[in-house]
Amino acid sequence: MGSRRAAALTLAACLLVGCSGGTDPGPADDRASAGDASGAAAGSTPGPADTSTAPDGPPLTADLRQSSRDAAAGQVQVWLGNGTGAPLTPTRLTYRDGRLTREVLAERLREVPAGRELGFPVPLPPAACPVDGDAAGVLEVVWEGGREEVPVTDDNGTVAAYATSACQARRVARVARLAFLDEVPTTGQGTAATARLLLQVEPTGRVPGATLTLETVNGTPVLAPAGGLPFWAPRLPVGGLERTRVIQLPVAPARCDSHAFLEAGGATAFRLDVRLDEPGREPLFAELVVRMPPAGARAALDFALEACGLTG
User: Fold this and answer.
1) What is the per-residue pLDDT across 112-133, written as a single tens digit (0 to 9) for each?
2) Domains and CATH numbers, the chain
3) Cis peptide before 113 (omega within 30 of 0)
4) Cβ neighbours around 241 below 10 Å, total
5) In whole angstroms, what is the distance from residue 168 CA to residue 243 CA?
6) Which residues touch 252 (CB under 8 Å, ≥6 apart)?
7) How many CB atoms lie within 10 A of CB 124?
8) 152 class by beta-carbon count within 10 Å (0-12 exposed, 13-18 middle, 19+ buried)
9) Are strands 90-96 and 137-143 parallel, antiparallel or unpaired?
10) pTM here?
């Protein structure tokens, strides 16, 4: 019994602070709760422990990658490929991108062996709004006795998606703030337990005539709508001067195997589909990521572990 309890506590800790799993640690989602659209990192997680063979081509190459844990940490990984034929130890790696408000320094600098590539964490600063659709990233690589600017490929459009989402979230935040509360009301015990997540919608009154409609709330790999529904559908319109509302979302564990808990970097990060109508502007249809606060996340995960019978 004690070992199951210890395992459960390990699962919860991994979900709350991130566990290193494989070669790519745990990014934006952008921290685009409507009240936190900047996506600035609160800290970074360790970089990949393993290397992979660098692609053929120019002596130095760079590309962006992002795991779910990177998104949760508000960062990306810039992978530097070393095709110079000799080990390279960067003394500074600077990422520049017109879609971001400032340049940023990569972290965990270390030697990149010849013919290999390594990933370096890059915290994401606030996005520059409106988003420059023609911008692209450049990595300045400085080492003892040399310097080179390397174009950064981003095949998945990670920075573009981050900046677009963050700018949309700022626009939504002018009309209403969306935030999960710390409380997760629970009834029953063990596998019979049920719970509700509480999502608060607080109009700001700053944009006269604007209406924000919360269309749907999607579950996560760990937390899902109760009753087997694919998503919650509040369909709730909120005007600029209406009172604050709290939406109750009945929740259940999405899965109860340990892999579901250990592999989910975004266990308490929910994607919300919203529509924003403002006078004189085209409607905005956006997907926002709203993360639970630490106390609420812990309460939700404690419930899921108990409902799955993983608490011992």
Assistant:
1) 999 999 999 999 999 999 999 8
2) 2-169 (no CATH), 174-307 (2.60.40)
3) no
4) 9
5) 23
6) 194, 223, 224, 225, 226, 227, 307
7) 29
8) buried
9) antiparallel
10) 0.74
